[in-house]
């Protein structure tokens, strides 16, 4: 079992997972108990098990009773071809307890070299959508996604382009908060793990032009109940030169504000640490012409326990917003970071996901 080095308030996330493991956890987010008001740090050696299994949990889950219960899987890629750099995103999510817009997948491409961007949003009828339980086997009009934790194959077809890639994970899976379970907002449990290093190769076709692409991807698998009180979130993934994988969550609910990171080390051990609230270092607001929503495009991120200070900026083009069926949208944007991590200079590429309204 991997070692966990919890630090400061973020230890509550791991303790909450322990409550889920040994309390009323019964395979459904709706059955989870609330964490104690003043949690104490626990470690993997004290008996907290992982509550997710990447091999089995790539498959679809039986839905919970709430209409906001969801299953989600997506990957984001940084690839190169013909002297150009591209960012790719493929995402499918289902809300099987909801009557409308329940089955959906999206595909987006940004040419980071030229700034060209395009996305595609497909709504699928329930009878035309398949995601098998217990294994990664997704089929829908325009989308095929199959495989396991060793190799995956993804094909996408849209009116303006296509993607056919192979993904081969390397290194350990990342369980968010070290166990795979944490409170997304206001005490509502969320299940999430990642395959943060996936060698990626294949063919991207855009407007009739074929590109042989090669690079890396980060896959995220998430499921559970989406809190109705969750008003805003930011998620970032950062791969460090020393092999550390850092996933940042910053969420605001009606009664909670959380900003923290899971750090997966190459040996499989974890740090779960506080991050200073991202709004404190957010700047350069951009307003979407499609939805009117505002998003920052620059951040100064501070992680005191890791002696880290990073500058993150959106790259290519700030207009990387994906619109949603309710008329709003969310930003799924390529980014780059520079700064210090554990006191050493670093730089790299990442993605930033934002939802909700940034008014300040």
From TrEMBL:
What GO annotations for molecular function exist for this entry?
A: hydrolase activity
Q: Which residues form the signal peptide?
A: 1-32
The answer to whether keyword Transmembrane helix applies is no
Give the domain of life. Answer: Bacteria
One family from Pfam that matches here is Lipocalin_9
Alphabetized InterPro entries for the sequence: AttH-like_dom_sf (IPR023374), AttH_dom (IPR010791)
Looking at the record, the residues that make up the AttH domain are 127-225
The alphabetized UniProt keywords are: Hydrolase, Signal
**Gene3D superfamilies from the UniProt entry:** AttH-like domain
Record-given protein name: Secreted hydrolase-like protein
Native organism: Streptosporangium roseum (strain ATCC 12428 / DSM 43021 / JCM 3005 / KCTC 9067 / NCIMB 10171 / NRRL 2505 / NI 9100)
Taxonomically, what lineage is the organism?
A: Bacteria, Bacillati, Actinomycetota, Actinomycetes, Streptosporangiales
């Amino acid at each position: 079992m991997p070692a966990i080095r919890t630090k400061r308030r973020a230890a509550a996330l791991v303790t909450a997972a322990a409550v889920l493991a040994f309390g009323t956890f019964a395979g459904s987010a709706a059955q989870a108990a609330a964490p104690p008001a003043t949690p104490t740090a626990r470690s993997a050696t004290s008996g907290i098990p992982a509550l997710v299994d990447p091999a089995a949990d790539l498959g679809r889950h039986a839905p919970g009773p709430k209409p906001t219960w969801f299953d989600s899987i997506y990957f984001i890629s940084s690839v190169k071809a013909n002297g150009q750099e591209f960012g790719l995103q493929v995402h499918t999510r289902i809300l099987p307890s909801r009557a409308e817009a329940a089955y959906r997948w999206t595909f987006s491409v940004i040419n980071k070299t030229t700034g060209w961007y395009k996305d595609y949003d497909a709504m699928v009828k329930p009878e035309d959508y398949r995601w098998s339980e217990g294994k990664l086997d997704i089929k829908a009009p325009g989308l095929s996604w199959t495989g396991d934790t060793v190799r995956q194959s993804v094909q996408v077809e849209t009116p303006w382009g296509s993607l056919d890639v192979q993904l081969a994970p390397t290194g350990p899976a990342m369980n968010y908060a070290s166990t795979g379970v944490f409170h997304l907002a206001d005490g509502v449990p969320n299940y999430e793990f990642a395959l943060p290093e996936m060698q990626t190769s294949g063919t991207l076709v855009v407007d009739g032009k074929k590109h042989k692409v090669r690079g890396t991807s980060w896959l995220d698998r998430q499921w559970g109940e989406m809190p109705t009180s969750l008003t805003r979130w930011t998620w970032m993934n950062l791969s460090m030169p020393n092999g550390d994988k850092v996933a940042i969550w910053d969420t605001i609910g009606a009664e909670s504000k959380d900003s923290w990171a899971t750090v997966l080390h190459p040996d499989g051990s974890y740090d779960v640490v506080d991050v200073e609230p991202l709004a404190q270092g957010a700047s350069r607001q951009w307003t979407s012409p499609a939805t009117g929503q505002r998003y920052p495009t620059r951040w100064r991120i501070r992680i005191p326990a890791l002696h880290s200070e990073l500058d993150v900026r959106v790259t290519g083009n700030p207009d990387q917003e994906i619109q949603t069926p309710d008329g709003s949208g969310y930003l799924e944007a390529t980014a780059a970071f520079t700064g210090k991590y554990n006191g050493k200079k670093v730089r790299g590429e990442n993605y930033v996901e934002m939802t909700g309204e940034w008014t300040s």
